[in-house]
Specification:
348 residues; alpha/beta; Rossmann fold; four-stranded parallel beta sheet; binds iron/sulfur cluster
């Protein structure tokens, strides 16, 4: 592809992924930043891993003229991080995800373009909280959603993502499980698990500040305005809203990957998204013939990663500024956090 053709592909892709909520770049600014980032990646033997909740400009892959080498959900990104052969991983996601990439790749440098990209779930619990829970419920297996920091993971038996949480919870013989830190995801899982296996779950009181905004009333309003649409709700959405949504429309509650797969397989043409707004950009890019009602609810942490600070992280490589972007986890925590992550990797 010539540079001109590659630029056209990038601009077409970018425009097709707009949800109407994001800050749009001018063509000139977008092309200039992408060109510099692609050159810096080559120079420093770096790859860019990008989460589905990143804005469109960070989700467009190299084959479409963009900067991302891999785009995925938490589990997909963790797996991609294990296959990386480059010296540097530039992580376009939030801090707990970049930590997971480092835990799996201690011989690589993982750079996070903005270390303030946190997560309300990850910051709702500490390693000390898990130790106290284990003392309160001795012998009860602890499942940690991957949206936790390394020091929390280090105290848990196994991690899970929204994609494999159900299979992991079902795999334990114990009749009681501790699931942390998302109470809403826990309640949604509990409903399914208790029905299937009779297991009881002890939950933590954390919540995703994005998904908890999907109240039954908000979803009902979107359904009333779009009566022919199917609903796509994430596990992290409050359980009463999930039940309400699925009682009144066809649809799915599931992980980001489940949602993407469902849309691809569904004969429906319209969908209401009960998840982070830029997943709408992903869906629109993948399925341009379908339409998506997106909620304009964005994760402020994810949006702290931009093309500009991604470029700055790459520019810093080999300079005194590099340390500002490097993700580091002390070895005693990293080695203990690795075990529950590796156990999780045995599940799809
Ligand atoms: S969307 Fe929710 S769970 Fe994901 S990073 Fe943002 S606050 Fe955390």
């Amino acid at each position: 592809m010539t540079t001109e053709q590659s630029d056209t592909v990038l601009l077409d892709r970018y425009s097709s992924m707009q949800t109407g909520c994001a800050v749009e770049y001018t063509s000139q600014d977008l092309l200039g930043l992408v060109e510099e980032i692609r050159a810096l990646k080559k120079k420093h033997n770096a790859v860019v891993l990008s989460h589905y909740y990143m804005p469109a400009e960070l989700q467009i892959t190299s084959e479409h003229g963009g900067i991302a080498d891999f785009v995925g959900d938490s589990l997909g990104l963790s797996r991609a991080a294990m296959d990386v052969e480059s010296d540097y991983i530039i992580f376009c996601g939030v801090k707990f995800m970049a930590e997971t990439a480092f835990i799996l790749n201690p011989d690589k440098k993982v750079l996070l373009p903005n270390h303030d990209a946190g997560c309300s779930l990850a910051s709702s619990i500490t390693g000390a909280d898990v130790v106290a829970l284990k003392a309160q419920y001795p012998g009860v297996p602890v499942i940690a959603y991957v949206n936790t920091y390394a020091e929390t993971k280090a105290e848990c038996d196994i991690c899970c993502t929204s994609r494999n949480a159900l299979a992991i919870a079902e795999s334990f013989e114990s009749d009681t499980l501790i699931f942390l830190p998302d109470k809403f995801m826990g309640r949604n899982l509990q409903r399914v698990i208790t029905e299937k296996t009779g297991k009881k779950m002890i939950l933590w009181e954390g919540a995703c500040e994005v998904h908890e905004q999907f109240t039954p009333g908000r979803i009902a309003g979107m359904q009333a305005m779009n009566p022919n649409a199917a609903v796509l709700v994430h596990w992290e959405v409050p359980d009463d809203a999930v039940l309400q949504a699925l009682a009144n429309s066809p649809g799915i509650v599931g992980s980001t990957s489940d949602i993407i797969r469902y849309v691809g397989e569904s004969p429906m043409k319209e969908f209401i998204l009960g998840s982070e707004c830029d997943l709408g950009a992903t869906l629109q890019g993948l399925y341009p013939e379908k339409s998506f009602v997106t909620p304009c609810i964005q994760c402020p942490h994810m949006k702290r990663i931009t093309l500009e600070n991604t470029r700055d992280a790459l520019r810093s490589i080999g300079t005194s500024l590099e340390a500002k972007y490097v993700i580091d986890v002390p070895e005693d925590i990293r080695s203990r956090a690795l075990l529950p992550i590796e156990r999780m990797m045995e599940f799809n």
